[in-house]
Amino acid sequence: MPCMRALLIFNPAAGQRDMRAAVAEVVAHLQATGWQVALRETYGRGDATTYARKAVAERLDAVFAVGGDGTLNEVVNGLAHSPVALGVLPTGTANVWAQEIGLPVPRLLSTDPNPLLTCVQQLAAGETRTMDLGTLNGRYFMLYGSVGFDAHIVREMEQQRDLKARLGGLAYFIAGAAAAWNFIGTRTLIVADGKKMRRRIWAVMAANTQLYGGLLRIAADALADDGMLDVVIVEGHGPLATLRHYSSFLLQGFWADPQVEFLRARTIEVHPHRPLPVQVDGDPSGSTPVRIEAAPRALRVLVPGGAALPIFHDESPLEVSLV
Fold first, then answer.
1. Of 133, 135, 174, 216, which is most buried, counting CB atoms within 10 Å of its CB?
2. Pick the CATH number of 139-296 from 3.40.50.300, 1.10.260.40, 3.30.360.10, 2.60.200.40
């Protein structure tokens, strides 16, 4: 079998722990099992995309993103529509994609001495699949692109990185509770596959996968390979509605909320009466208006083998193993 060539893109700022020793074990394991591996650390925004594009130019077999969902998004924007497969080695706060495909993620009380090593062993012996992506104003996303309340929280957390580093996911809940008192709905024109609708929105979320924030399956029926986006429109007016929605999201009771609407679309445009914040995969991405589109079969991904993954409709992998 020919030698597999891979790049590890490592964001040392992701998460709450120093992962350099764990990453070194991953590199040593891959090399010992016949891989040709290079390691590059990121130093600022955009580095991971630049490195991923270079991996495509060099025709590598795989890129492993070592970081959180933001790092993963940058790598996706470098690999989209290429033959290079993406593997995730999670070290971030939510690690949504890793949870979607059943990989172990760093946890405070974990008994696994190196979850990253476990992840790379599962991925290298697993399967390669093709999945859709979404685009929001031209930027690819793997998980969610959204407008409104949750994007507001993401933007707030970008300005409080020290708090996020200390508290992890708890920081988002604190920021959400604080924002709920002041966030009000906005009159908005929404166009989904050409159909126009007017709503006073609290949030509009376009989902490519099911799990949101590592905790909630907001788009419980979403499939990552159906060529569609699952859209969640949440209506709201004043602070009381915001508090009610925020509580229902935390308690996972929003499916029965009459102000929550679910639909599927290939394209969706959001034109609010006033500019609203936007986020993709947990990173701020400017303000409205936005055009969100599905990008079918745009990314090759490494997933563990053997287990049924509910986010894939097509049960047939492209390849069974890389080793």
1. 133
2. 2.60.200.40
